[in-house]
Amino acid sequence: MEEKVMYIGTVCELTGLSERQIRYYEERKLIFPNRTKGGVRKYSFEDVANLREINRSLKDGFRTFELRSMLDKRSHGGRKL
Amino acid sequence: MEEKVMYIGTVCELTGLSERQIRYYEERKLIFPNRTKGGVRKYSFEDVANLREINRSLKDGFRTFELRSMLDKRSHGGRKL
DNA sequence: CGTGTAAGGAATTCTGACACG
DNA sequence: CGTGTAAGGAATTCTGACACG
Lengths: 81, 81
Prior knowledge:
Two copies of one chain form a homodimer. Chain A has helices spanning 8-15, 19-27, 45-59, 64-77, and strands at residues 34-35, 41-42. The first copy, chain A, is mostly helical and 81 residues long.
């Protein structure tokens, strides 16, 4: 539960990812940024870490739906490994 | 040396201060945000803590120039108390 | 001195779509 | 499927100034 304080441009700098990639991962339910009243996305440092993990997994051959199902298992089973 | 990741609007939310106050404290050399290429200010969580401290001190009757001289002493003497 | 506000411009982000493969 | 891009609009921030006291 970290604080959602960064805009997408900052997240791009920290992760090296494009805005397109970050928004797409959200569309696939892999990350959940907050929104300002105006609709602007806000991310936490935890989101940044997750984004790196997601991108790395995709490079390793995983698909977004696979990553999503892995997230579901984590939140259910309680085991992380 | 924390990372400068927040825009001023976020800092306002976290501190309860107005943009005006935050920019004014910068003008008085009490905080030092970074800038994006476009000129937008970026703050760290440390800046947020400092801003709260600054505002509290002002309410206690201090002037900005007094707070600045206190900052100078800290960075020189090495003592924090 | 420290802060509020209206003013106009500039930087940043948003959505939906077309493209490639 | 995952990502790039051009398009137009909307949200956010910036500076300099006038105001109060």
